[in-house]
Amino acid sequence: MWNFGGDKQSSSPNHRLFAGGLPSDSVQDGFRGSIELKRRGFYPKGGGIVNASIDPIDVLSPIVLNEFGEIRRIYGLSYSCRLPSHIVKRMATSVRETLRNNGYGEAFIELECLQPEDSRCASNPGCGSIVFAELSSGSIIGSDSLGE
């Protein structure tokens, strides 16, 4: 299945939130599938392409988070298309400092700065960050934000 459009919009979640921050092929609570970004897309032009493959199931188990547990690891991605690399570096630094200043310790934030020669680069400029926390309960929570 191919999905065409923006994969980064202020009113829609990042495609990686659907993957739960897990590797492309994952099994959790009865879900089997993969999500792969082919090309980023930012408002207003969009044009993002996401390849999603989901195996059919009879019953999808609910996600129940009764116990938050301890945060075991925080990681994420700061990304941009058609922008200078210093912007992505500054965003990642800001994410790390915000987490550290709020008592969450160190976080591994991957950097991705795509330029037009990369087939995954959006047709117009844009940037954002996405952060995940692995919990001792086995759950993964995440949040994302677009650059403005």
Could you explain the architecture of this structure?
The protein has two helices and eight strands. It is mainly beta and 148 residues long. It has one domain (2-56, 65-146): RNA 3'-terminal phosphate cyclase, insert domain (Dihydrodipicolinate Reductase, domain 2, 2-Layer Sandwich), CATH 3.30.360. Strand 2 and strand 3 (31-39) form a beta hairpin. The chain is flat.
Terminal CA distance = 31 Å
The total of helices stands at: 2
Structural class by secondary-structure content: mainly beta
Low-confidence stretches at least 5 residues in length (pLDDT < 50)?
1-7, 22-27
Average the pLDDT over all residues and give the rounded result: 81
Per the principal axes of the C-alpha atoms, what is the gross shape? Answer: flat
Number of domains: 1
CATH superfamily: RNA 3'-terminal phosphate cyclase, insert domain
Strand content: 35-45%
| CATH structural architecture | 2-Layer Sandwich
Strand order of the largest sheet: 1-4-3-2
What would CATH call the class?
Answer: Alpha Beta
What is the CATH topology assignment? Dihydrodipicolinate Reductase, domain 2
The major pleated sheet works out as: 4 strands, antiparallel
- Evaluate the radius of gyration: 16 Å
Question: Strand-and-helix sequence, N→C?
Answer: EHEEEEHEEE
Helix content: 10-25%
How many individual β-strands?
A: 8
